[in-house]
Design brief:
Blueprint lengths: L9 H9 L7 H7 L4 E5 L2 E4 L4 E4 L2 H4 L8 H13 L12 H13 L4 E7 L2 H18 L7 E5 L8 H6 L16 E4 L4 H4 L6 H19 L4 E6 L15 H11 L3 E5 L13 H5 L5 E4 L11 E6 H14 L12 H16 L2 H17 L7 E7 L2 E6 L14 H12 L2 E2 L1 E3 L2 E4 L7 H25 L3
Bound molecules: 4'-deoxy-4'-aminopyridoxal-5'-phosphate.
Length: about 475
């Protein structure tokens, strides 16, 4: 059942002739061609043939308000007409930039008082590394430069943010990492726990690893710990109880900045405004993007404390400048769209909605645990994963990893649903606006897809 598009479409031919797609095997793409999307409506997208899909992954974890929010379009048009571009270098500013910063400070935890923009999550994490290096130099701590991150964590793809990312394929043949970064154990019991290890023992082992690493490297060389509160790209990995509290305490003890990468978790994804709120931690820096504009415009915001601001600000006075910024830092159209987006999230209580619908979604999804092909179901709020496994009594995956996943993606398309497949895991992260009824429909289509993949797995004996 290959649902790939045909080459008769001249757009597809042009794409193959001219493109190099992100996260794509280029030679395979030449054979398969692109699936070309044309328009969107609520949680649905339509391809160029008119076929309608539920977008149960919100594009790339990001289209919170769905694919047809007129108010975001109007906000963009209005700003384009008024002032399509202005920059924020050399004391310049414009209203959307200021209003959005005010709004972000209002909705973040009290200790966060400052905002700096970039165009993407990758640039934001790149900028965070620069900020921390700059301020540690300013503090007279020039050796304090190393970052701690986690294996399988995702923090972006530029040379520096990609170095923080802990996925081998994002380093391989790129000569990365290029900064000093140590990737610690992935905080997920099922994937990284030892045989027979309890959750509490696992947490203790992770925290011991963190502290031992800081002591081994020397606290005077360790600058920051960065992590997604709930790891997304790795496969929606829920950390063990007590993990984040422990990480926070160890960071405080050794003067290590705690950076929460909220690029996916932020703005309601876990049924709370931020992932840090969900896990009850107070990071020094929170990095946001994606649902900040529902991805209608590219934008990221770095949110941080007054203390960090003051150290940086003093140093700018000393050396004359904060020698950093992009032409489009705080772009007026992007910030105007973000402001409207946050207003809508608030007006419609989409954070509470995410918690409520997320519960219905997860309860129904948990029923798939009984499916013969399902090894694990997990998630929080409107973010979930269903892990396919050959034998549900064991943690082991398929011998031929990824085959069932590839099949599942194609079968899902045939069932008019787009989900993300990571290895043999099905990932769901639907728009925040999804209704209960639609969420149940997502699970129904996922179940049908699993039935079909199970037949395939049996027929091909890939277990
Ligand atoms: N951090 C996290 C947690 C992400 O999931 C992503 C992107 N998926 C990024 C950072 C990078 O964002 P961008 O793709 O906008 O550069």
């Amino acid at each position: 059942m290959d649902t790939g598009p045909t080459f008769s479409n001249s757009l597809a031919a042009a794409d193959i002739a001219t493109g190099l797609h992100p996260f794509t095997n280029a030679r395979l793409h030449e054979q398969k061609g692109p699936l070309i999307m044309e328009r969107g409506e609520g949680i649905y997208v339509y391809d160029v043939t008119g076929k309608k899909y539920i977008e149960s992954f919100a594009g790339l974890w990001s289209v919170g308000l769905g694919f047809s929010e007129q108010r975001l379009v109007d906000a963009a048009v209005k700003q384009m007409q008024r002032l399509p571009f202005y920059h924020t270098f050399n004391h310049m500013s414009h209203e959307p930039n200021i209003r959005l910063a005010e709004k972000l400070v209002e909705i973040t935890p009290d200790h966060i008082t400052r905002v700096s923009y970039t165009n993407s999550g990758s640039e934001a994490n790149d900028t965070v590394v620069k900020m921390i290096w700059y301020l540690n130099n300013a503090r007279g701590l020039p050796k304090k430069k190393k970052f701690l991150a986690r294996k399988k964590g995702y923090h972006g793809i530029t040379m520096v943010s990609g170095s923080l990312t802990g996925l081998p394929n994002n380093h391989r043949d790129f000569d990365m990492p290029i900064i000093p970064v140590i990737h610690l154990t992935t905080p997920h019991l099922r994937t990284s726990g030892l045989d027979g290890e309890s959750e509490a023992e696992f947490t203790a082992r992770l925290l011991a690893e963190l502290e031992e690493t800081i002591l081994r490297e020397g606290p005077e060389t360790v600058a920051a710990f960065i992590g997604e509160p709930l790891m997304a790209a790795a496969g929606v990995l829920v950390p063990p109880q007590g993990y984040w509290q422990g990480v926070e305490a160890i960071c405080r003890k050794y003067d290590v900045f705690l950076v929460a990468d909220e690029v996916v978790n932020g703005f309601g994804r876990l049924g709370t405004m931020f992932g840090s709120t969900y896990f009850g931690i107070k990071p020094d820096i929170m990095v946001t993007s994606k649902q900040l504009t529902s991805s209608y415009m590219p934008l990221a915001a770095i949110l941080f404390t007054e203390e960090i601001y003051n150290i940086i600000a003093d140093n700018t006075a000393k050396i004359g400048t904060w020698g950093h910024g992009y032409t489009t830092t705080g772009h007026p159209v992007a910030t105007a769209v973000a402001l409207e987006n946050l207003k809508i999230i608030e007006e419609r209580d989409l954070v509470g909605h995410s918690a409520r619908v997320g519960k219905v979604f997860m309860d129904r999804l948990q029923q798939l645990s009984d499916h013969p092909l399902v090894g694990d179901v997990r998630g929080v709020g409107l973010m979930a994963a269903v892990e396919m496994a050959p034998d549900k009594r064991s943690r082991a995956g398929f011998e031929q990893a990824g085959k069932a996943g590839t099949k599942a993606f194609a079968a899902a398309l045939a069932n008019n649903i787009i989900m993300r497949v990571v290895g043999d895991q099905l990932i769901f992260c639907p728009p925040l606006i999804i209704t209960e009824e639609q969420a149940l429909e997502v699970v129904a289509r996922a179940e049908k897809t699993l039935d079909e993949v199970e037949q395939y797995v049996r027929a091909e004996s890939i277990a």
